[in-house]
Amino acid sequence: MKDIVDTMADLRINDFVIKIGNVNGTGSASANGLLMKAIFRMGVPVVGKNLFPSNIQGLPTWFEIRVTKDAYMARSGAADLVVAMNAETYKRDLAEVSPGGFLLYDDTWPRPELHARTDITAIGVPLARLCNAKFDNARTRVLMKNMAYVGAVAGLTGIDVSIIKAMVEEMFGSKPKLIDANMTAINLGLDYVRQTYPEPLPLRVQAMDATRGNVLIDGNTAAALGCVYAGATFGAWYPITPSTSLMDGYKSFCEKFRVDPETGEKKFCIIQAEDELASIGMAVGAGWNGARAFTPTSGPGISLMSEFIGFAYYSEVPVVLFNVQRAGPSTGLPTRTQQCDLTLCAYASHGDTKHIMLFPANPAECFEMAVQSFDIAERFQTPVFFMTDLDIGMNDWMIPELEWDDSYQPDRGKILSAAELEELPKYYRYEDRDGDNIPYRTVPGVHPKGAYFTRGSGHNWKGGYTEDAAEYKEVLDRLTRKWEDSADAVPGPVIIEASKPTNRAIISLGGCDGAVREALDRLAERGIELNYMRVRGFPFSAEVEAFMDSHDEIFVVEQNRDAQLRGLLINETAVDKTKLIPVLDYAGMAANPAFIIEGVTAHLVAEEA
Amino acid sequence: MTSMSKPLIDKHLPRNKLNLTVRDYEGSMSTLCAGCGHDSVTAALVQAFWQLDLPPHSAAKISGIGCSSKTTAYFMGQSHGINCVHGRMPSVATGANAVNGDLHYIGISGDGDSLSIGFGQFAHAIRRNLNMLYVLENNGVYGLTKGQFSASADIGTKSKKGIANEQSPIDPCVQALTLGAGFVARAFSGDKSQLVPLIQAGLMHKGFALIDVISPCVTFNDHAGSTKSYAHTFKYYHPLVHTDFVAHHEEITADTSEGGAITVTMHDGGILKLRKTDDDYDPRDRAQAIETLLLGDRSGEIRTGLLYVNEDMADMHAANHLPKTPLNALPYEALTPGRAALAKLQGRWK
């Protein structure tokens, strides 16, 4: 029996972080998923973050599971129990254990150096030896080693093994042999720690009732569902991390819901294009032809799509672009998160162009805003950018179960039917008949009177080619007004007032939301009160401007180097830029509150000094 | 000057089955140079559509950028047209076609648009067997930017300034054949009797139909030493096979017993009658087609006609199992899984 309570911290129930270091391509994702979901099924809120390399097999990967009874949405930055499964990263994993924490490693091969830190406890479990003795096949041994640590972690922290067993049964339902093998491995780890360390760790998972009515889902899947519920029928794409799972999701939901069981007819079309130049062209073609069309991509894809984006903007074709942002510039860090394409998408393409953007903060908003994106794109007849990121898109988030209102009808905007065209004396594509800056469009083939020539070259309100200065300006100015009008159609900001009056605030967006909310709690504990506004759409509405007017010092928290949200606020509103203080987290990791707290307090300290 | 309207003198013009004259199939005035080969192609398109008795709003005209791409405004004025970005016509056609396969998709492109900036999209539209008529108006030069060689310029052909091209040309027909196109033709803008039936056959072909039309640029590539001039093309012009297109309602009178004739029933209507010339050429043999084109290059002959046809290939719609009702016409109720399905689906995330 070994004693592991030398450095035992205070007992922490449902409030700690497990971090698992592994080698990618070894099947660790399912093992980590099991642990996270088991905790969730025990009724305890969780946050999961997968840190993975841009590689298929053999490089380091980490998975963080934050057990958070308070249901915080962000990572905490701590690592209380580190499961070190990758000998290559032992040094780094050891260094990352939070003081008072624990390091679990495979002591099939003794590693005295892992016992070097006196402020943490290293726990050895001979995972490889246990699995090698039980399983013959080399690949099976590797996979089962992961299951063995699931058992060990469950045993050490009190995760209910019967829940894990139920999940393994769900996972391998039709393959009883696999259920047995996996449970054997889980029990190897579980039995070993129970015998060797009869006292569980002071990091404890205890059943709660705080996850009922919630689901664990990633943002790309939720956005894909949004596309299905929005009635989108056409998607074109070129594979790119981290957007790929969005199209995978759309495809699987369409296969489930949109295939005629009798005829095999598919009520959707997905085209894997030859590149992003083509995928956006296809989506534009489908949008022009009256379907709800989209393309999922990431920053490099947007760069390639830029010419078509300007075309769709100028010729007024609705299309939705899902930008699952990753760290740039150039190829950058394809498997790390950032909010680094705000400026790019706001003004994508050459010439004077301005676009509409929506900023979901979590998978719940991904679902909701995906639907809104199609409505807005069609109402304003223009490209709409759905600005998500790798953290929202690829990590599982705990959100309230998605709801759908069956009374929803798509807002198709102004489309003239054959009967309406028949009534018209003459149809002109860009005529502002209603004086609301939005002209009527027609779908090809509907009626000969609806025909017009769509062009990216200079055109007048009739749709005819023009080089006349006044005619050209007339269209361009209407486009500006149309874009400005969309400020009231995009989702409005979410404002949270501090408990005491304050002239200081935070403005943020997207996936920073969870980290900001937690930082606000911590700062309030220190007596720093801040109001909070999360912008959810671009162009900015009057409410965004009013919020800035009513504060003297505003921290703009975002995940890019160049303070792009701050730049847009300065460029598109009358705000005094000196009161906007950038707090920039662009290291590629999901946002964590510590960074925000540090940014805010450092500024306040400097101010006082 | 697209604002200029054409004089109306159609009182005595013949009418088709829809009681329409060719004028009903025309578009706005061409702004191309007088004598431009592209205008002859435009006229052939108008005639082909009129003869087929197709409603004048049943086409979707798609083009990229360049002199050829401008011509989509000059025919079928009652159909929608989209003049998108350089070299990207095939992608727009793909998306448009996917959501409504009931229209006749006509892509107009040029040698710059298809063989340089848009070479990738040209190739991939063929791979998908997109159901469209793809007309490549091929003149060997960039006209709008004043006469640079394009990728179809032959080795040794001379620019207006007398400089010889030294880079090997891309032959769109050879490319299309190697990529698996089911309808590959070459024509000359100066021979409407050959071009019109080819256009009709291409429209009725279910799948990707390429017509590479040698269409001389009178301003920048019609001089001595150019292999894309009118004079050169007339001199070396060699139809391999004569094509007659017979619409279904006329077919009773067609003589199918003629010696050497090959009859091909078009998927979307009509019959092709291919009469051999003295060459022993069978346009159903892809390998022979490729070989003939490559040999033709060596002899300097411009071998034209329907070089290859295969009516038995699944087009993009079939491959994607797209519904009979176009996607753009499906009611929302047919597309949403509804509230109950969403509730049920989410069990997997609990």
Structure, briefly:
Chain B: This is 2-oxoglutarate ferredoxin oxidoreductase subunit beta. Chain A is α/β, with parallel strands linked by helices and 609 residues long.
Question: Would you kindly provide a written description of the structure presented here, covering whatever features stand out?
Answer:
The complex is a heterodimer of chains A (609) and B (350). With 609 residues, chain A is α/β, with parallel strands linked by helices. Chain A is built from 19 helices and 23 strands. In chain A, the strands form five sheets. A seven-stranded mixed β-sheet of chain A has the order 11-10-12-13-15-14-21, with helices on both faces. A six-stranded mixed β-sheet of chain A has the order 3-4-2-5-6-7, with helices on both faces. A five-stranded mixed β-sheet of chain A has the order 18-20-19-22-23, sandwiched between helices. The longest helix of chain A is centred in the N-terminal third of the chain and has 21 residues, at 176-196. The mean pLDDT of chain A is 96. By secondary structure, chain B is of the alpha/beta class. Chain B has one domain: Thiamin diphosphate (ThDP)-binding fold, Pyr/PP domains (Rossmann fold), CATH 3.40.50.970. Chain B is 28% helix and 19% strand. Chain B has eleven helices and 13 strands. Chain B has an eight-stranded mixed β-sheet, sandwiched between helices. In chain B, β5 (141-142) and β6 form a beta hairpin. At the A-B interface, β9, α7, α8, β11 and α9 of A face β2, α3, α5 and α11 of B. Chain B: Residues 65-213 form the Thiamine pyrophosphate enzyme TPP-binding domain. Chain B: This is 2-oxoglutarate ferredoxin oxidoreductase subunit beta. Chain B: It holds the Pfam family TPP_enzyme_C.
Mean pLDDT of chain B: 91
Q: What characteristic shape of chain B results from the CA principal axes?
A: globular
What count of structural domains of chain A?
4
Query: Going by CATH, what is the homologous superfamily of the largest domain in chain A?
Result: Pyruvate-ferredoxin oxidoreductase, PFOR, domain III
Provide the helix percentage of chain A: 25-40%
Distance between the termini of chain B: 65 Å
Radius of gyration of chain A: 27 Å
Unreliable residue runs of chain A: none
Supply the CATH superfamily name of chain B: Thiamin diphosphate (ThDP)-binding fold, Pyr/PP domains
